[in-house]
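Researcher: We're teaching a course module on how sequence relates to structure. For the next exercise, students receive a sequence and then see the predicted structure as tokens, so they can try to spot secondary structure elements on their own. Here is the exercise chain.
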Amino acid sequence: MSVQRDSPAAPWKAALTVSIAWLVLNAALTFENVWPTPGVRPAAAVSPEILALVAALAGWAAMGRAVGPRGRRLIAWALLFAVVGRYLQVTAPALLGRPFNVYWDGRHVPQVLLLAASEQPPWRVALVVLGAAFVVGLSVWLMIRSGSWVIGRLCDAFASKAVARTVAGLALALFAVWGADRLSGSPKLWRVYSHPVSLAYLEQGWFLARALAPGAVDRLLPASPAFAGDVRALAGADVLVLFIESYGAVTRDDPKMSAALAPSHARLVRAADRAGFGVVSAFVRSPTFGGGSWLAHASLLSGLAMDDPAHYHLMLTTRRPTLVSHFAAHGYETVGWMPGLHKDWPEGSFYGYDRIVDADALQYPGPIFGFWRIPDQYSIARLGALELYGGPRKPRFIVFPTITSHVPFRPLPPYVADRSRLLGGDAFDAAAVSRALAEPPDWSNLTPAYTAGIEYSLRWLADFLADRAANAHAGGLPAGEIGRRPAPEPEPTPGPTPGPTSEPTSEPTSEPSSEPVRAPTSAPRSEPTRPLVVVALGDHQPTGMITGPGASWDVPVHVFAGDPRLLDRLEAAGFTRGLEAPRAPLGHMAGLAATLSAAFSEAGVDVPGAADAPRTGQEPGAQLTGAPPSGRPEAQRLAR
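Model: And here is the predicted structure for the students to work with:
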């Protein structure tokens, strides 16, 4: 492109062109979210990236250089990449309550799409896919063409060297003001300038480069808690850890939701009292928000704060001790009760469960409810019948991540009042099932469905405790197992053991190490059931569409036990009697590992409390939550 000579009229026209083009480009990287929707709207802010781009183009033109058509297209592609990043940057916190991570969340996109499509007929899914592909392709073509055209008009305007020098100086000055404010340590102009998309990409890339470097495990993961002491204070009681899906502090913080759930909380207290259970409660801070339940599970079971998915990925390459291995070392049989597990789960070998009971092993005979299929009410009834019976057996440590209260919270299974029919194939009324399945998720207002899902969870928990009292001397099914046993592994060694971070293929070459163990079929026996301790806690807050912006990452935790001495110990550690607890959290969820192991120890070993959990170098939200990696490569495939 040739550079035009300055003329009296050219600078005025060039300045107008530059102003319009600058505003258009700036708007592309400064829009904000319309909460709680996926929509966006213009925002009165200045983009540092556009300042840098305009200054570079103007300075290039002032030196007598020109940007050709190919260069303009490259700039347009870079802008498109930045626009997509900006959309994720402002939309994900509004919809999920947390930022979007390209690397980790990108792996989770297929599962999200599958969840959205699971309730639709194939023809509609195909139509949507084709329509989406057409719209995306057309949008990309239009944005590249329009972006190249705007860049071209900007470059043409800079042919006036006077305009180019003036614009370069102005853009550099505004960019310098932004840089100085950011480096000040306490930015004051964050409302004037938008958050740079480029820095977000650079931060993620830099972190991943460090995380995947040799020796990353030793550098990024602190020492695991000692899990000192024994479990004699439990006196052989079974321990059930219930992760109630999406049970967050919003159930207490939101006045309307709190009032709606008050009867369910009262019913739970009454049921626990009649069953001989006392309860203490507290709040703890989850490592994740709106999703990423596996990070919460790993934090509690490992005692390490898994605030960053990369740390979770690194931890799986080690043989760190866990609450599961701690209980196993003291004579407990450990069971992962996983009704949401529909495929091989190599991560299970890290935790060291003796058995893993997945969706297939549960042998659910009823109707399918949404993507997660199996109602929690059935799963807890099955657990009580098959795992918590009396008679001669080892005490059991069971971890049960629930699924029914998972987003989108519908279809919600009808509640089965006659629990004696629950394990049969005819437990559900056909008309009630039809009504439940006909009620689609309302993505524009998830709060009512979420509230109903939590109410459902509190109700089956109350009935589970009540049934424990009613059947205290009725026994249960005779000794037997269901589930699958992970492949045997070498004895764990203390401290981190770095391993490869590459992920296994979807079809591992190793063969299953054992056959699945199915449900017992013989008649009930009369031995009384064992004592039981239930630790029920939320895994994370629900999506930001429910909590609103700026919500905390706190979740409730309740411990039900019949031994008042155990409750006294937990109360001394910061818990409060009853279901209500002071709103200030005790600390990170990871600290519960040390708190619980100390309370369960006969000696009452002095270990750090919840506020002193080993940290992985990040605060909640400092890094981004995404899809779970697949575990260490040497893990054997689990038998179905």
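Model: If you want an answer key for the exercise: The longest strand covers residues 278-285. The mean pLDDT is 79.
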